[in-house]
Amino acid sequence: MDYEQGMIGRGRDALEMIFDADSIKENLIDDIQIEAEIGPGAVVGTGLLDGEKATFIANDAQAINPRFNVVYFGVIGMEEAYKMALAVYSTIEADKDKPLEQKRPLVLIVDTPGNGPGKTEEIFGMNKATGSYQLALAEARKLGHPIIAMVIGRAISGAFLCHGLQADQILALDKTFGTMIHVMPLTSISRITKIDIERLEELSKDNPVFAAGVDFFHRLGGVEEIVKKVEDMKATIKKHIAEVREAKKAGQQEKLGPWGRGALGDERGGRVARKKVMEKMTEEYNAVADKYLNA
Amino acid sequence: MALNELNFKYKVENPQSIAKEYSHLGVVGSGDLEVLMEKKDFGGGAEVKVVTPVTGFDKVWEMVVTKFVKGNNLGDLLIEINDNNATPVVVSMRLRQALAEANKIEKGGE
Amino acid sequence: MLSWDELQKAKFTEANARERAFGLVDKGTFTEFVSPRDRMPSPHLPVLGEAIGYDDGVVTGIGLIGKRPVFVVSQEGRFIGGAVGEVHGAKMVQAIKLALKAYEDVKVKYPDSYEERLPAVVISFETGGVRLHESNAGLLAHAEVMDQFQDARGKIPIIAVIGSKIGCFGGMGFVGAATDVIIMSEQGRLGLTGPEVIEQEMGKDEFDASNKALVFRTTGGKHKYIMQDANFLVEDSVAGFYQQLQEVMKLPFAEIEKFRRIGSKKLVEEQLELVKLAVGLGAKDSMDVWKYYGNEDPAKLVDMGPDEFLKVAKRRERKLG
Asked: For residue B1, what pLDDT is reported?
């Protein structure tokens, strides 16, 4: 395999690398069928991880949506986001009678530059589509499904919020693969904030709070583990599924997902104001709570 | 590039603090600022802290702030200003408004 | 600051975030949490030479509407466009978390009558989403807000108030969409991609961001009301929003949940119908959609006053709810 090229645009290849040979069934979660015609930029379905069933949700950056001209190159459009949400809800449905420890995992393969930015999208409410997918993931996570996001290429801003940041744990290929995690490139930040690019470049060398890159997200607690080799993706994903499952069984949901990453950001020194603010608020609320709860 | 912090201390004759324990006014919008006034036991003195992205106008700040503190005989008072490029006219106006707010007698139930 | 009574008459668009927070709950009941006096500005702005604010652009606190504790989050658009950084985001997240704590406490204390004391969260959005100066922290905070929203599902209502000049865009656009109830004024705007970015992506011929009428028809309160993306349309005053909140609080929670647009498989299927309509209709302008929903002369709706608009405007019919 040619790793020099990295994995950008290779969501389907990643599925082949991660799931057992010939195990991938697109648009199918057990016997629940997901409409195959919609959202070509999103690939969803079921695959096996060493024999264990898992739902996958991946970007296909090679696909072009013929109905929405802003959706190509991995962009998540309205159809794509709802399709992704359907895959999640169908997974919940398929396992609804299973106990917590048997809820199947969801694996998100992340390589997306953004959400559909068009006029039609705004008229019909693109914000609902991506919001919908996030709520679905949060629901599945809280029901006990382990959710692992694997960033193989681009994880940019709102698209990453939608496809990745609701996972229990987030893994990312090492930056040598060209992996990108950021809100905006520094040139755009410079243009909008009117701060010199030179200054931003200098600061971004060691400022995890706005700098682009996998390592900085790691320091902020936004990425749990960096995967050094593509061959390691499968084993690392499996390891994290097991870890997440254990934590859920032990009732430690607060160590996972966005809330867990908050604590991790504090631990790694990247986001320390968050906790102080929250503690102060709690203290001030406790001082007046009686008055409001017994009005 | 960091923010510019200015600190001033005053001691006036027969100083007056504010009626409320503390008072806040304004929004740190572009060309505007916020003022926080807080009663403090400074032995009659007054302290002012300004945080602003603007550099090179420290003298102007000192003039505006000094005029305000001395003109109103302020003491036992901490004034903090977070500025975002407000003009001296706006600064003076906000300081006057903040003082009026700090001395406003609260009406019942508000 | 204006008194509560004066505030009610004030335009919502012109009030600041703190005034809105005070005015959205019953007279004299608002207590601010992490107020400017606590001096908790963003730790990340000074190094960039960017002005700080002691509330970091968001006012959080608690008030009452009747007997119900209402946790208020009110964003300030004049401070860096209301954008969400680490501190701002933490305040939002914790407001919801505390509301959930209050919910548990009320249930224990008033097991038979907790519904009349059910806490609520009210968020006045005025934001473009992530604050670029601390973008990574802002992004992570967005995810935490969504996570809390899901925790609140079926327990306490989360109500969006969108009536500010900046509106609710970017990552906060989907946060707004994920609430239970959305109250907007004509001046409020809700979406994902702001007009300038659409113009940049699609060209000026397709979308002219300087065309205010076009911008408001695409994401403004009237359009969102017709689409059922906004549940209520109110006049641009603090009282308009406050009174609507009072009305919503009178409804049983089961009724409130029916206002949701997203958050279940059924709702996704309903939205997918809308996406199919987008394809089938080939709408070039929101007015094409208004016409489809039975508004014979959609152009007339644009300049119509709110009272008349509410009387004559025909909305998308919902199968659910």
From this structure: 65
Host H or E run for residue A257: helix A257-267
CATH class of the domain at B4-102: alpha beta
Q: Encode pLDDT of A284-293 as tens digits.
A: 999 999 999 9
What is the rounded radius of gyration, in angstroms, for the C-alpha atoms of chain B?
14
B partners (3+ CB pairs within 8 A) are C
pLDDT at position A4 is: 56
- Chain A positions touching C153 (Cβ under 8 A) are 139
CA distances from A228 to A14, A215, A225, C136 (A): 15, 12, 10, 22
**Residue B110 pLDDT exceeds 60:** no
pLDDT confidence bin for B106, thresholds 50/70/90: low
Q: Is B103 on the interface with C (CB under 8 A)?
A: no
Whether the CB-CB separation of C174 and C195 falls below 8 Å is answered with no
Distances (CA, A) of A119 to C141, C196, C285: 27, 11, 8
Structure token digits, residue C86: 């680490």
Beta-carbon contacts of B55 under 8 Å, excluding residues fewer than 6 positions away, are B4
Q: How far is Cα A239 from Cα A227, in angstroms, rounded to an integer?
A: 12
Domain ranges of chain C: 4-190+229-262
Contact C17 B29 (CB under 8 A): no
Cβ-based contacts of A182 with chain C (< 8 Å) = 135-136
Residue extents of the structural domains in chain B: 4-102
Interface test with A, best of C147, C270, C290 (most A CBs within 10 A): C147
Amino acid at A197: I
Query: Inter-chain contact A128–C262, Cβ cutoff 8 Å?
Result: yes
What percent of chain C has pLDDT above 90? 94
CA distance C8 to B102: 22
The packing angle between helices A257-267 and C135-152, to 10°, is: 140
Q: How confident is the model at residue A206 (pLDDT cuts 50, 70, 90)?
A: confident
Nearest-CA distance C183 → chain A (Å): 16
How close C71 gets to chain A, by Cα (Å)?
Answer: 10
Q: Which two tokens stand for residue A119?
A: 């006029």
Q: Indicate the SS3 state at residue B6.
A: strand
**Residue of A44, A203, A285, A290 best to disrupt the C interface, most CBs of C under 10 A:** A285
SS3 A230: helix
Whether A65 shows a pLDDT value over 50: the answer reads: yes
Task: Select the more confidently predicted residue: A82 or A202.
Answer: A82
The CATH code belonging to domain A3-293 is: 3.90.226.10
Q: pLDDT at residue C197 above 90?
A: no
CB contact residues (below 8 A), chain C span 118-147, against chain B = none
Class of domain C4-190+229-262: alpha beta
Write down the H helix ranges in chain C. 4-9, 17-23, 86-109, 135-152, 171-177, 195-202, 212-219, 221-226, 238-250, 253-257, 265-281, 286-292, 298-302, 306-312
**Which pLDDT band, with edges at 50, 70 and 90, does B107 fall under?**
low
**CA distances from residue B93 to B98, C45, C122, C190, C283 in whole angstroms, order as listed:** 9, 26, 33, 35, 51
* Chain B neighbors of C47, CB-CB under 8 A: 1-2
Q: For residues B14 and C1, which has the higher predicted lDDT (pLDDT)?
A: B14
Domains of chain A by residue range: 3-293
